[in-house]
Structures are given as structure tokens and as C-alpha cells.
Write a structure and sequence with these properties.
Helix 2 packs across helix 6 and helix 3 packs parallel to helix 4. The chain has 220 residues and is an alpha/beta fold. The strands form two sheets. It has a four-stranded parallel sheet with strand order 2-1-3-4, with helices on both faces. It has a two-stranded antiparallel ribbon with strand order 5-6. It contains nine helices and six strands. The chain has two domains: 148 residues, Rossmann fold (3-Layer(aba) Sandwich), CATH 3.40.50; 51 residues, no CATH class.
Length: 220
């Protein structure tokens, strides 16, 4: 593929603006020269887009990324997790086992948890290919992972907002979450005979107000 065609395939859509974002990054220490460059690229991209919280954690190698991401999801408060690693093919099948393990692990997290886990792991034939993708000739895949995280956060928020709105359409007032919240508050405060009916009778309210014997003292 020519360089011209590569440029044409680049995603030129603007990154959505998202507020109050927290992103966790788990970076492997194995092949640290590469992973540090990828992590720096991710952090700079997130800082550029005013991410409120960036939490970077380190683990020994790529195999440990899945466990670390799972722990951050369980015990942290993040909108997305980025996992960063670098696996370079060697003379043994180790490369294949590691790549398969981390790919399956991150895929499972993405389908079983409610926040996106972004795959920022390089799986390359040699060190030069990794350097090219860690700020070299083929950009920085860490920065691209951070961009993907921001896009997925925006996607998730939009989906939740859309479905939350659809879930409340057509509800009676008694079924609406706000009504249930008010009823719970009333119950906790031992308030009796609280009427949450939305069919308010304005005429009756006006008559009660006009016939109140205290009205002349306060308003006339």
C-alpha cells in the first residue's frame, strides 16, 4: 500500500469532547523502552484533551495486563482503561501464547464489564517495527489508543443517555425514577399521606387558596 493510500485511510473525524473523564493506563515493563514511549504518547494525548484524571500503573509483562486491568475496573473509578505492552517475536512459540492470552483476556473484559478496555499492545516481528509504532515512522500507537479511549467514552455516554431517555418515555408518574426517589425520601423521613399523583387539579388549589381565611391578613 502506498503512503498516499495510508493517509486516505486515516480517521479524520474529530475526537468528541467529553468532560470529567478518568482514564487508567496499565503499562508492561517488558520491552520498557517501547512501552514507555507508548505510555508517554497516550498521556500526552489525554492531557491534550483535558482529561481530568490519568492514572498510570506498571506491571511486569504483557501477560499481567489482563489481571491489572480487571483490578483497576473493580477497585477504581475510571471511564476507560488502556493496556499497553510490546511483544516481539522470538525463536520459541512464547510469542504466540502471550499474544493469544492478552488478546482473549482483554476481549473478555470488554464483553463482561461496563467500561471499555483499549488494546494498546504491539505484536511485532522485530524491535524496529516496534520503534516505528512508538513515535517513529508509523506514529505512536499509544496516542492512538488514547484517542480510541476518548471515542469509546463518548460512545458509551451517548448510548446510556439515549437508552435512559427511552426507558422513561411513556411511563406514568408513579413509575418514573424521580417519583420513586421522592417516595423513598418520604419514607425515610416518616412523612405520611404524600401524594405523588401528577394529575394536579389547579382549580381546586385556587379555590382552597381563595377561601383561606388567612389570605386577607397576608395579601390584602
Amino acid at each position: 500500500m502506498s503512503s498516499k493510500n495510508k493517509q486516505n485511510t486515516k480517521n479524520d473525524h474529530k475526537i468528541p469532547k467529553v468532560k470529567d473523564v478518568a482514564v487508567g493506563i496499565v503499562s508492561a515493563l517488558w520491552n520498557q523502552k517501547i512501552t514507555d514511549a507508548l505510555t508517554d504518547g497516550a498521556v500526552k494525548m489525554l492531557e491534550k484533551h483535558k482529561v481530568k484524571k490519568i492514572d498510570v500503573r506498571r506491571v511486569p509483562g504483557t501477560i499481567e495486563l489482563t489481571h491489572a486491568a480487571s483490578m483497576m475496573i473493580e477497585h477504581g473509578d475510571y471511564d476507560a482503561i488502556i493496556v499497553i505492552g510490546c511483544v516481539i517475536r522470538g525463536d520459541t512459540p512464547h510469542f504466540d501464547y502471550v499474544c493469544q492470552s492478552v488478546t482473549q483476556g482483554i476481549t473478555k473484559l470488554n464483553v463482561t464489564t461496563d467500561i471499555p478496555v483499549i488494546f494498546g499492545v504491539l505484536t511485532v516481528e522485530n524491535e524496529q517495527q516496534a520503534l516505528d509504532r512508538a513515535g517513529g515512522a508509523l506514529s505512536n500507537k499509544g496516542a492512538e489508543a488514547a484517542e480510541a479511549a476518548l471515542r469509546m467514552i463518548a460512545f458509551d455516554r451517548d448510548m446510556r443517555e439515549t437508552y435512559d431517555r427511552q426507558d422513561t418515555e411513556g411511563m406514568s408518574w408513579e413509575e418514573h425514577p424521580i417519583a420513586r426517589m421522592l417516595q423513598d425520601m418520604a419514607a425515610k423521613q416518616d412523612i405520611d399521606d404524600v401524594d405523588f399523583d401528577d394529575d394536579f387539579d389547579d382549580d381546586d388549589d385556587d379555590d382552597e387558596f381563595n377561601n383561606d381565611p388567612r389570605r386577607g391578613k397576608h395579601y390584602n
